[in-house]
Structures are given as C-alpha cells and as structure tokens.
Amino acid sequence: MEDLPSVGIRLLDERLTGWGFPRWGSAAAAGLDLHACLDAPLTLEPGAPAALIPAGFCVLIRDPAWCGLVFPRSGRGHRDGLILGNGTGVIDADYEGPLMISAWNRSDRPARIEPGERIAQLVFTRVTRPTLTVLDTDEPAGSGRGQGGFGSSGR
User: Fold this and answer.
1) Per its UniProt entry, what is the enzyme's top EC class, as one word (predicted)?
2) DSSP 154
3) Which CA distances in Å does 20 have to 17, 46, 117?
4) What are the residues facing 11 on neighbouring strands?
5) Strand 98-105 and strand 51-60: pairing?
6) Where in the chain does DSSP place strands (E)?
7) 70: left (phi over 0), alpha (psi -120 to 50) or beta
8) Is the Cβ–Cβ distance between 85 and 12 less than 8 Å?
9) What is the pTM (predicted TM-score) of this model?
10) What's the CA gap between 39 and 145, in Å, rounded?
11) Tell me, what DSSP letter sits at residue 142?
12) In Å, how far are 22, 89, 105 from 85, measured between CA atoms?
C-alpha cells in the first residue's frame, strides 16, 4: 500500500465534521461519501437544469498518476432519479478548487435534497496516459471490428 498518494482535504464548510466527513460508508466501500453543503433544502424539479451543489471541501490530489471520479449514489439514482448532471465528474490531480456536485433529476416527480445529505461519492483511481500515435487514415483496422459502426458487434 506504500504506492498510495497522500491526498489533502481542505474543509470549507465546518458542518462536514458533524456529518461524519470524511468517511467511506463501509470498510469495503470504494466511494468517499459526499454531502450536500446546502443552507436550506433544495428541490429539483423533473427535467429542470442541473444544480451545482457545494461538497464543502477542496481535494488536493497533486499526484498526476491519480484522479478522483465523482459518481451518484446508487440508491438515490435508482429510487428517486437523482443523478449527476454531467454523468461522472473528473477531478484532475492539479485541480484544487471547491468540489461541486452537478445534480439532476431524471424522474417524473420532484427530488428533495436536504442539507448534509449524502448525494454523491468520490472514488480515487490511477490514471494511465498512453503514448498516442497518429496513424495513416488508409491503414486498415487490425481487428476488423468497427467496420459495421456503433453497436455492430451485438448482432
């Protein structure tokens, strides 16, 4: 485990510690719970534009071999239609600003978010940056796949 980076956390909202931050939901949980640092409940109407919700801290990864990925919490997404407005958030190693959660309601009924509620999760993962080689456009595909377009392998 010595190859794990040390990641700094700069708290911006003092309520986080009272809500139990930082913590993972269980001993085997991949995602660090992210809380909605709101001053009042927020209701997201169905299909309304995504709302940016402060997570109340800055994360300082700083090691370019690592990044953070922000995902919705499964239960709220399945049960209430609360998902991320950007699908998955990517936190680059050199980003040190406030962490924000883009929340969107895909359901047909309003979704209410309470202050302090856990609404997303942050997963840390390694980054691989391969060497990219620009190929001649006339060079045939080596595997033969892709000739039929998107979804062609599922015949």
Assistant:
1) hydrolase
2) G
3) 5, 30, 11
4) 57
5) antiparallel
6) 8-11, 32-35, 42-44, 51-60, 66-72, 82-84, 89-91, 98-105, 111-113, 118-126
7) beta
8) no
9) 0.86
10) 52
11) S
12) 23, 9, 8
Count helices and strands in the chain by DSSP H and E runs? 2, 10
Find out whether 84 and 120 touch, Cβ atoms under 8 Å.
Answer: yes
Q: Would the pLDDT of 1 be above 60? A: no
Give 89's strand partners: 70
- 50 by Cβ neighbours in 10 Å (0-12 / 13-18 / 19+) ranks as middle
The more confidently predicted of residues 152 and 45 is: 45
For residue 117, give Cα distances in angstroms to 45, 110, 143, 150: 18, 16, 48, 39
**DSSP conformational letter for 24:** B
The closest of 121, 112, 102 to 34, measured between CA atoms, is 121
Task: Find tokens 């990219």 and name the residue.
Answer: 132
Which residues are CB-contacts of 8 (< 8 A; sequence separation ≥ 6)? 59, 60, 62
Q: Which two tokens stand for residue 15?
A: 């309520």
Dig out the tokens for 9 from the structure: 């956390």
Cα(77)–Cα(115) distance, rounded to whole angstroms?
18
